[in-house]
Amino acid sequence: xxxxxxxxxxYLSKITDNCWQIKKGFVKNMKVEGRFYVNDTLERLMLxxxxxxxxxxxxxxxxxxxxxxxxxxxxxxIVGYSVGLPDVHxxxxxxxxxxxxxxxxxxxxxxxxxxxxxxxxxxxxxxxTNLDAKDxxxxxxxxxxxxxxxxxxxVGSKGVIPMAARDLEEALEMGMDWSLREGYAWAExxxxxxEYGRMLQADPDKVSAxxxxxxxxxxxxxxxxxxxxxxxxxxxxxxxxxxxxxxxDHKGQVCVMIHSGSRxxxxxxxxxxxxxxxxxxxxxxxxxxxxxxxxxxxxxxEGQDYLKAMAGAANYAWVNRSSMTxxxxxxxxxxxxxxxxxxxxxxxxxxxxxxxxVEEHMIDGKQKTxxxxxxxxxxAFPPHHPLIPVDYQLTGQPVLIGGTMGTCSYVLTGTxxxxxxxxGTTCHGAGRAWSRAKSRRNLDYNTVxxxxxxxxxxxxxxxxxxxxxxxxxxxxxxxxxxNTCHAAGISKKAIKLKPIAVIKG
Length: 505
What we know:
The protein has 505 residues and is α+β, with helices and mostly antiparallel strands. The protein is built from 16 helices and 19 strands. The strands form four sheets. Strands 7, 8, 9, 11, 15, 16, 18 and 19 form an eight-stranded mixed sheet that branches. A seven-stranded mixed sheet has the order 1-2-3-4-5-13-12, sandwiched between helices. The longest helix is centred in the middle third of the chain and has 36 residues, at 301-336. A hairpin with a 2-residue loop joins strand 12 and strand 13. Helix 6 (165-174) packs across helix 11 (301-336), helix 8 (209-215) runs antiparallel to helix 10 and helix 10 (263-284) packs antiparallel against helix 11.
């Protein structure tokens, strides 16, 4: 029997200004408690979503984020908390913006494709330049068009990077090492990527023929949805020391942000795994609260096959972003009649948003090996962590938080407090407030374009409907999300960037 909204609220408690706890019993079989991070504005959105679900209105068949966080807390082998970051919203299985860690030494611990997402290693890469806004603004339209011409965008777009079946197999195994070998990346690019742009456990043989067929023509393509390439300008510097380490030393400096993932390849890997895991759950008698949380024991054949295929799709995503980096560097060099090297177009960092990784963390004073699922969330390791680049050892890992079309983006850094509270995890973006269908119903194409023009933002888009779906009104306020993470201490603000040109699918 369903509970009333007030009955649901009895299981929720506010433990700090920015953190709520979901008590055991909110849903059945919870192994740990849940937590979610919000400020006053985001809190109202979360609780309104819960209220609507109790009334059974406005949810379109999706569970509210609070309930999804709780359902994840009922998965076998979970440790710590099931964590919702401030950009959390309803997704498939796990909420988007949900992080959970599973004890690798527990034979019952599971891996769930719903905890990674369909766009495996969807992530963000930020390039700096030595250009200023005054250099770019006079040629902004030409530069936007040049980027749009160089990078294939939109649903079903095909890449311009030559690739045969054998090349794809190698790219799945080698990640950015393939890009480096083929001349599409600089040697130093790898240093500033999570996992150095290559997950070593990748096995192309675990990626289905159908997934490979979908991925083969799409390498070096942006895709559609919330993916974009943006020319941005530094608007604020909050942490001068950290930003200088990243090569950002003044307001007005121009950067480029690329947000994309593994395209149809990753989607198919996830789909294939969900089918095999449903069978494994029956065999191993694994019970979950939501069938979208299909999972398999980490050490089972199905679990290992998925992790090896997921790593291949993650490698593909790094090759994809590297290919677009190559095309971006070409577009800028052509416009300014120089070389990318002369423009100092180095990667500040490349973060993954949808991935599961084996990591070492402290649990109750003991070091444990965990499989950390980050879906719509970002790794945010603190200063001195061995897995972050030498340049960032004193500042903490850069964290890239992309805004939505026409809103600002942020660079944060990881903190020790985040390591303790969220397994070194923070938000990934604004997080949707409206569904795509609601955005199309409520927003007008020309009005959205007019607002962008008023902000002096150039836009190139392949599909007109995306203009409404990706409008700022469709999302939570990214500044609210970032300020919540900063106030909670799970990451620290370093730089604010504003867009001057947006390329979308």
